[in-house]
Each structure stands twice: as C-alpha cells, then as structure tokens.
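ABC transporter ATP-binding protein
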Amino acid sequence: MRRRTLRRNRRHVSLGVVLLSLHQVAEALVPVAIGLTIDLAVVPGNITALAYCVAGTALLFTVLALAYRTGARYSLRATENEAHLLRVEAARRALDPRGERSGLRVGEVLSVATSDAEQAALYVRAWAAGIAVTVAIVVTTVALLMVDVPLGLGVLVGVPLLMLLLRIPAAHITRRSEAKQATAAGATALATDLVTGLRVLMGIGARHNAALRYRSASVRALEASVGAAASNGVYRGLVTAASAVFLACVAGVAGWMALEGRLTIGELVIVIGLAQFLAEPVQGLGMVGQIFATARASAERLVRLLNAPDAVTPGDRSPGGAGEAALVELSGVSYRTLSDVDLRLVPGEFVGVLATDPRDAEALLELLSGRGDPEGTDGSVTVGGVPVHDLDLAALRATVLVEEHGSALFEGTLRSNLVTGADPDDERLLDALRAASAEDLVVGHPDGLDRPVSDQATNLSGGQRQRVALARALASDPPVLVLHDPTTAVDAVTEEAIARGVAAARTGRSTAGATLVVAASPALLSRADRVVVLVGGRVHRTGTHARLVEEDRHYGEAVLR
C-alpha cells in the first residue's frame, strides 16, 4: 500500500521532495554563509567581499522562502489527493454490491473511510518531510566535515544512533494509535446503531441504558485517545531532550577547539550555527517517525477493509429466458438452519412461505439474493435454470429482487426514493404507491411525489416507511419479487389493502413473473396460490391458506392472531 501511495502521487511527491530538500539545504547554508562573511569580509575589512557576501545571503534567503512555499504546496496537494483517493476506495468497497467480510460494523466502516483515510494519507507527507530532513542532516554533516573531520564524524555517528534509540518508543506509539483508532471506531459504530434505533429505544424505555452504553464506549475511546496523546507527548519530549543534549555536546566540543586555536571565529560560528540548526531536522526526523507510526496504524485498518473477501462471489452467466419451467428452484437445499428444502417458483405464481423460525426465513432470503456461502450450501439453487452462484450479480439483481424487512430510505424526495434504474413516469410510481396503500403520502400534500424525505426518513412513521419501501419494490417490477414481512408496521385494515394491491399489481404484469412472500400475514398468505410451511428448517406442508388453517396446527397458531 505504501509503494502504491507514492507511485500514484509520484509527480507531486517528487516535486515536493526536491523543493523541500532545497529549502533544507538553503537553511543549512545560512550559518555557513554567516561564518564565511565573518572570515572573508568582516575580519579582513574587505568591503567588496562584504557586498558579495550580503548579495549571496539575500539570494540564499530568497531561494529558502520560495522553495519551502512551493514544496509545501506540492506536498500538501499530494497528501490531500491521497486522502481523497483512499476515501473513495473505502466508500467503493463499502458500497460494492458483492459485500465484504471484514468484520467491521457500519460505524467502524464510516470511521475507516474518513478518519483512517486521512491519517493513512499522512504517509505521503511524512515521506517528503523525511527525505528533506535527511538531506539537511547530510548537508550539515558534510559542512562539519569540511570544517573539522573528527567533529563531522562525531555528528555522522551520533545522529543515526540517536534515531535508532528513538525507534523503541515509536513502536509503543503505533500500538497506542491502533488502540485509539479502534476504540474511536467502536464508539462511532455504537453511536450509529443507537441513532438509527432511537425511536425503538424511546418506545421501549431503554434510552437511559443506551446512553449508559454509549457513555462507557466514549470513556474507553477517551482513555485510549489520552493514552495515545500522552505517548506522543513523551515521545516529543524525548526527541527534544535527546537532541538538546547531543547538540550541547557538539557545541561544547567546538568551543573547546576554538579556544585551542583549531577553529577560526567564522568556523566557530559555522559549527555553532549548524549545531543549532541541526536541532530542527533531528527533531523533524523524530516527528516523521511518529507520523509514520500513526499512518501505519490507520493504513492497517484500511487494508483490512479494502482486502476483505467478498461476501458474495458471483459468476458471469445470465439467467435463462422466460421459457424456463421454473424462474427459481431450490432442490434438496441445506443451508444454515434449512434442511433438504425443495421450492419452485414458476411464471405467474404468487407463493407464500411461513417460517416458524425466523432463522429459516433469513437463510432462505440469503440463498435467493445470492448471498449464501456456496461452500456451506448443499443441493442446488437455480434462477432461470442457472445455478445462482454462477450468475452475474447485475443479472441476478435484475431478475430477483429481495425486498428485506428492514429496507432503508434515503434523504431526498419521495420520487427519488421510488425511482430505480431508468426513470419511470409518474403514473407508474403512483400505481406502485396505490398498490402499497401509500397513495395518501402524495394526495393532499402540496409537493406530491416531490414531498421531502429527511435523513433516515425520520419525518415518516414506521408504517409509512415500510409502505414506501414496498412501493419502490413494486415500481421496479422485477421478474421475481421476494418480499419479507412487508406489513408488520401497519394496521389490519391497511394490511388487507396492501395484500389486495400487491396481488393485483403482480398478477397484472404484462409478462408472467413470480412473487414470493415470506410472512405470517393471513391477508397476504390468503392470496397466495400455495403456501409452503417451514418447521425446524424443513418443508412441513404445502397447500392453500384456507386448507392449512383447517388442517395444520403449526400454521394456524402462527397466522391466526
């Protein structure tokens, strides 16, 4: 990942490195210029030499200022560009229709795509700054060697040794940074979950307990952040103290050499100036190590998300044509809690499924949506005569639409939440709303289909949200529509109207399609051509709603309320 980061920002990174290095060279040459001015112009009293020295020093400061300004701009641009690219990659991976198995919660993915992406991008800045300060140290060492070889060798040996010793606390900082990012992401994930379910928490009176849970998670995140900040502070203090002691030794040796007559006044100024200047790149090198440690911790979390295996591994085939005997067929399927399940959906059918165990319903929906693990599935699941795991994902989604019970609505308008794919006309959207018994959301509202929908659709009730999601599924008009508990948030009268509307909308399609409703609603199941009852993961019985109510105790207990 680090090599890729530098490769795709190589132009701006290279320009930034060159210009920042030039700035460091110019800054290192300032005490050299002052020392030479003293020895060549001030001590001998040479006015001409003084004029040249002053002009050279002015040029040096001009280069110093322009190089830093331009180099910092290129370096910052590369860093921000990399942060943008990482955010886009993380968002693309999170939104990939194949899904991912990183094990990260929604809030953690959000933290990785924002905070971690920005922190990981600092690697670009650290790389440019690291090279620049290394150049400064090399130039300073060379200048010191030209003044006095033993003194220069002492600096040449001392600086790497100092950096080697400072690597020990850097490893501790990496661990603290990882803990900080992990706990912060956990707190974000918990906050996302609580905000999403706020209405439910208020309804069951669990708001206080939820607040306590978040407070506990926030305290852990605070403690981890304080620990990381403390480690960073100690590290900065160690770098400053070690640099000060080292440079004091250099200055002391240079002063003793001047007293012995081995250095001129100008050379003493050069040595003291270089020793004082060396504090900045030495500390900068230490700070670069700290930035590398922080960026590495975030990069590891990004890699976890970006390299996570797909939740679904699709093929490249398309479903068979309308002439297939069955649009969807499960034959001897065992998956999770399901055992030896047979189920066929032929064109024009309206089939109901009653699962006495919610886990059976979830397993069935996973199989029909192509999210089931092929290695953990026995038997065959085909769509249009093609095994579901051999299908191209876009082709599968175009053929089979699984409308989950917890469908989400998005901020925008009613129209933007109903439109899928090519924009259908308003009449088609209104027909879908009527079938879902949601026409009241448009009729009487001044904005009609352009009625605003807030974030998380909080300006709609639970029943309204459920009906809009159902209308969206009906408006998309897929060949196979799978609905999971589409009427749990509405009253009995509305439930009956929805059942009547859905049956009419699906049987009135221009081409024969199939509808599968996984529910315990007697209004929906009574309109099914047949109902499949799953008990203990197996097909217990199959028949019409009326017959099953009379003959099957399990069925009667589940649907009659």
